[in-house]
Amino acid sequence: MLKESYQLLINGKHVDASSGEFFETYNPATGEVLAKVAKATREDVDQAVAAARAAFEGGKWPRMTGAKRARILNNIAELMRKNFDELVRIEVLNSGKTVSAAKGQIGQAIEDFELYAAAAITLGGETKPVPNGFFNYTVKEPVGVCGQIIPWNYPLMMAAWKIAPALAAGCTVVLKPASLTPITALILADLCHKAGVPEGVINVVTGSGSEIGPYITEHPGIDKVAFTGETETGKDIMARAAKTVKRVTLELGGKSPNIVFDDCDIEAAVDGSLYGIFYNTGQSCEARSRLFVHEKIYDEFMSRFLEKAARLRVGDPFAEGVHVGAVISEGQVKVIDSYVRLAVEEGAEILYGGKRPEGPEFERGFWYMPTIIGNVRNDMRVAQEEIFGPVVVVMKFRDEDEVIRLANDTIYGLGSAVWTKDHAKAHRVAAAIRAGIVMVNCPISAFPGTPFGGYKQSGFGRELALETLDLYTETKSVLSYIGSRPLNLFGI
Ligand code: NAP
Ligand code: MG
Q1: What DSSP state is assigned to residue 111?
Q2: Contact (CB, 8 A) for 305 and 372
Q3: Could you give the CA distance from residue 376 to residue 388 in angstroms, rounded to a whole number?
Q4: What gap in Å lies between CA 182 and CA 180, rounded to an integer?
Q5: Do residues 151 and 112 lie in contact, with contact meaning Cβ atoms separated by under 8 Å?
Q6: How many domains is the chain built from?
Q7: pLDDT value of position 338
Q8: What span, in angstroms and rounded, lies between the C-alpha atoms of 330 and 362?
Q9: Which domain holds residue 33?
Q10: Residues near 336 by Cβ (< 8 Å), separated by ≥ 6?
Q11: pLDDT-flagged residues of the chain (< 70)
Q12: How many whole angstroms separate alpha carbon 168 and alpha carbon 469?
């Protein structure tokens, strides 16, 4: 399934970019070129939008019954299952993540299609109470052509989070994958066509976000933009989308707190805190990158945390038993390292890692060691800014009020975690935290069906849940008069 070169997908056809240009995409674990990919221009975006518009205005997809759309969504899931091993292999090759991480994410992506298949059948309106003689019903109609822009950290899963609810609602799509990881989204779009999605419903334009991204977000032919990525990019998108009053969903960055109380199961908290930050090489929007440990158990917790961190295996993402794969790019390694240097300048202390791993295995590709930084204050830049790599900052706290204040002292509000055996406390803290997701005694942030999204500058709108369909539909209210006497409201 891996090819040497990939074209754009417009109106069901693979086509070169109008400029004929390509860009290269890499294997982060080796630094080698993996494939070349068509570099879309504005003209290509216009073509893709025109195809999506035509499929929306006159095509079958928005007019199909929910049951038929559901069958096709289930076909997509089925085809993904059939191609599972190859999808996992290509995802690992293009992202540098471990096989087990890719398996989990692609497994979830498949279930996302199944979730929205079920939802497509039930999607409908309501009748509302109105005065005698009137009858009102609401209809859920697809919002239209959706521009969907996704990041590199979960390439296929993010594509599924975007495409599946849009399809279920009857929308059509212009998808722009991240330039660092465009391949599996292109393959998924092919599988969608094989599964029965009509041409023009899903179009994929690969290319530079800074060049075609703003064109997509301003495009008058697009009704809604769904974006996942950095908060700074999200702000630009929101401003541009305002010009045509597009519907907008933003899933942005985070700096999620992980709160370990003195009455927790320490072993479980150590394991969960390691997983919460170092899973996916720390490149998760909801990575629990600020670790708050109660002062009473700080020494014991930290000695176990550091001991287990030293047991994490970094390396070849295809190798058995590796926990931490490659970093996405050399640029990202430099960003991570500069934050670690900054932490030291700010007076923090590197307790583990803080450098590239050494050895012949790491001579090629992009790597950084799992890194634990102590002696941190929450107002340091390293505790306030998203690093997006395998770096956790650790802070001590005294009591519940203090830790809630510190946890909320951030511009972000995506994930959070609480470790305690006291359930009353767990849910008191869950209520006090200003974040879209709270994990209690576990490091798993979501399953298909649970809402995923942020408060504050982590964005707005929820994905992965049934309520996501509200963001891909408009509600139409139809109000009819069914009384027996004609209405004569002016009385003339
Ligand atoms: P990014 O730099 O914002 O890029 C995301 C996507 O936007 C890419 O496809 C990019 O294209 C495109 N893009 C860049 N500039 C654009 C512009 N001006 N207008 C429109 N599109 C533009 O984010 P990233 O570095 O790929 O991803 C990491 C970020 O995603 C982190 O901040 C992370 O927290 C966030 N994230 C959030 C969630 C969530 O659910 N909240 C989930 C995953 C990741 P190119 O690739 O061509 O530059
Ligand atoms: Mg970026």
Answers
A1: H
A2: yes
A3: 18
A4: 6
A5: no
A6: 2
A7: 98
A8: 12
A9: 5-252+458-477
A10: 327, 368, 371, 387, 388, 389, 390, 391
A11: none
A12: 8
Q: What is the pLDDT of residue 1?
A: 79
Contacts of 414 (CB under 8 A, 6+ apart): 252, 253, 254, 256, 285, 286, 435, 436, 437, 453, 454, 455, 458, 459
Query: Which residue, 267, 171, 167, is CA-closest to 222?
Result: 171
- The ligand placed nearest to the CA atom of residue 217 is 1
Q: What is the 3-state secondary structure (H, E, C) of 20-84?
A: CCEEEEECCCCCCEEEEEECCCHHHHHHHHHHHHHHHHCCCHHHCCHHHHHHHHHHHHHHHHHCH
> Can you give the pTM of this predicted structure?
0.98
For residue 148, CA distances in Å to 158, 228, 387, 412 come to 10, 8, 24, 22
Residues 156 and 238 in one domain: yes
Amino acid at the residue 314: V
Residue 252 Cβ inside 6 Å of ligand 1? The answer reads yes
Q: How far is CA 433 from CA 100, 393, 412, in A?
A: 31, 19, 11
H helices, E strands: number in the chain = 14, 21
Nearest to 166 by CA among 194, 197, 143, 193: 143
Ligand 1 in contact with 465 (CB < 6 A)?
no
Q: What's the confidence (pLDDT) of residue 287?
A: 98
d(CA 347, CA 174): 47
Cα of 327 from ligand 2 centre, angstroms = 13
In the numeric block, the tokens 């300048």 are attached to 345
The CA distance from 52 to 225, in Å, is: 14
Specify the CATH number for the domain of residue 92: 3.40.605.10
**79 within domain boundaries:** yes
Q: Is 285 a catalytic residue?
A: yes
Ligand 1 atom nearest 177 alpha carbon = 9
The answer to whether residues 314 and 370 touch, using CB atoms and an 8 Å cutoff, is yes
The tokens for 259 are: 């709160």
In a shared domain, residues 265 and 345: yes
Instruction: From 95, 228, 412, 445, give the residue whose CB has the most ligand 1 atoms within 8 Å, as the site to mutate.
Output: 228
In a domain, 492, yes or no: no
Which residues, other chains included, contact 77 with Cβ-Cβ below 8 Å and sequence gap of 6+?
110, 111, 113, 114, 117
In this structure, what token pair is assigned to residue 289? Answer: 């990158």
**Identity at 370, one-letter amino acid code:** P
Handedness of CA 417, 418, 419, 424 (dihedral sign): negative
